[in-house]
């Protein structure tokens, strides 16, 4: 067990497929509390990532670096640098660990540092901070992913575009939390990690 170039690429291609399948839904969530581009931003980025990874890198560190660079240069918005940071931190950590829980923990620390958000600010940090400990404890389930994403609905946004709406951001799922939910779902479905 542990991360390999092959199962890492499987995970990311599965994430990419989920983004593609749900890009309209993700953008609709963003239309309610943002500028309506989240699904399209992520789709553009993940298509470029899958294209890039069709030439297989030699190490997991190289895979993570290529994902990070590609996301930073193609996604844009708030989510591009944040997902980019997550994968860059996983690249760094992968020099000494192939444990997915430890890698995701490093990614979460990077996202928080980069965006300044804390749990309950209605950002992707909400989903990551609930689910990373579940991955570490080997207890991640589909139900936990769904409930972490759904729990962002009743929060008032404190960071990002949705925070401009104040109380009116309540009642809508956070788009970046939903896309992050797909990343964890894709992980759950990937054999051997
Ligand atoms: P933009 O808001 O620039 O159009 P996107 O629509 O692609 O970018 O991404 C919006 C998502 O980014 C939000 O739903 C939220 O999850 C996430 N996000 C925004 N700001 C922050 C932040 N400071 N920290 C963590 N996540 C954030
Ligand atoms: Mg947006
Ligand atoms: Mg935007």
Account of the protein in words:
The chain is mostly helical and 193 residues long. It is globular, with a radius of gyration of 15 Å. α2 (23-33) packs antiparallel against α9 and α8 packs antiparallel against α9 (175-189). It has nine helices and no strands. The protein has one domain (5-189): Serine Threonine Protein Phosphatase 5, Tetratricopeptide repeat. The structure holds adenosine-5'-diphosphate and magnesium ion (2 copies). Pathway: Polyol metabolism; glycerol degradation. This is phosphoenolpyruvate--glycerone phosphotransferase. GO terms for molecular function: glycerone kinase activity; phosphoenolpyruvate-glycerone phosphotransferase activity. Its EC number is 2.7.1.121.
Topology order in helix (H) and strand (E) letters: HHHHHHHHH
* CATH architecture label: Alpha Horseshoe
* Helix-strand makeup class: mainly alpha
Question: What compounds are bound to the protein?
Answer: adenosine-5'-diphosphate, magnesium ion
Distance between the termini: 6 Å
Uncertain runs are: none
**CATH topology grouping:** Serine Threonine Protein Phosphatase 5, Tetratricopeptide repeat
Main β sheet profile:
none
How much of the sequence lies in strands comes to under 5%
**Domain count:** 1
Helix content: 55-70%
CATH homology group: DhaL domain
What is the 3D shape? globular
According to DSSP, the number of beta strands is 0
CATH class category name: Mainly Alpha
Rg value: 15 Å
Mean pLDDT: 97
Task: State the helix count.
Answer: 9
């Amino acid at each position: 067990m542990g991360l390999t170039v092959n199962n890492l690429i499987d995970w990311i291609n599965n994430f990419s497929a989920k983004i593609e399948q749900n890009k309209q839904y993700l953008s609709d969530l963003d239309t309610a509390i943002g500028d309506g581009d989240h699904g399209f931003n992520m789709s553009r980025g993940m298509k470029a990532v899958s294209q890039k990874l069709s030439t297989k890198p030699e190490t997991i560190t190289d895979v993570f670096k290529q994902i990070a660079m590609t996301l930073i240069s193609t996604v844009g918005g708030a989510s591009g640098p944040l997902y980019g940071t997550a994968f860059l931190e996983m690249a760094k950590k992968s020099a000494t660990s192939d444990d997915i829980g430890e890698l995701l923990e490093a990614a979460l620390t990077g996202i928080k540092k980069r965006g300044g958000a804390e749990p309950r600010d209605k950002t992707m940090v909400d989903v990551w901070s609930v689910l990373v400990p579940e991955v570490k404890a080997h207890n991640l389930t589909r139900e936990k992913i769904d409930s972490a994403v759904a729990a962002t609905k009743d929060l008032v946004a404190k960071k990002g575009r949705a925070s401009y709406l104040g109380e009116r951001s309540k009642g809508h799922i956070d788009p970046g939390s939903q896309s992050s939910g797909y990343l964890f779902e894709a992980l759950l479905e990937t054999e051997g990690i």
